[in-house]
Amino acid sequence: GSGLDAVLVRHREVELARQGLEKIRIARRESSRHLGMVRQEVDEVRNRLDGMQRSDPRFPKLVMEEHNALRKLEEQEETFLSQDSQERDAFEKLSVALTISHIEERAHAERTKYWGVAASLIGTALGLFGSLILSSHRINGFSATMEEYANTTSNQLSQFRSEFNAHVRDFVTNRGTIEDSAESKGEAAVKTSSLGLVTGNRVGHPEENQATQENLSRIEMISAIGATSGILSVCILTAVLFIRPPSSSR
To answer: Which pTM value belongs to this model?
Structure first.
């Protein structure tokens, strides 16, 4: 913006000063060449006067030529000195313009560097802030997904537990019904066997007494198996209901 415009203005000033110095140097070289020619002309006139008698009719003319040549020499020397002074002034002006241009360039470079550093810091901060926002968004999305997955898994586990508990209750109920039925049948058999045993004892048949004993043994074995099955069913139900499975939501 304005800094670059100021640098360009200083560059134009330097270029103008350089062009002015070049023109003055060309004029000074031309003046120096004319000054040399006038000096040579004065030397030639003086050499001719030195070899001429004062009484020679051409002497006054040579004196006038010398006078004119000396006047030209004086004017040319003044012109040369003026151009020499102008050249020094132009050179000083160019030096000042170059110094100011260098100062302005350094200032612009410093400003550009500071702006570049500030822009880099701002860009880094914006990039970090954007990365944090993106990471937070991703984390929130991941957390929501995991929470949804945990809820779904928990619901599935709850449903599975409910179904399993229902099956276990049905199993226990059916097992109790079967055991009650078995116990009823066993009691009836025991009563029948007892009645037969009493009758047999009364009538005195040992084979029937032996069969009755075997029936009693079978009934006792069935009762023991039923009791053991009931105990195992209760243990399994207790383990399912009170042993907490590992949570998958963590």
So the answer is: 0.45
Condensed to tens digits (0 to 9), the pLDDT of residues 166-215 reads: 777 777 677 666 556 555 555 544 444 443 443 444 344 445 456 556 65
- Are the CB atoms for 241 and 165 separated by under 8 Å? yes
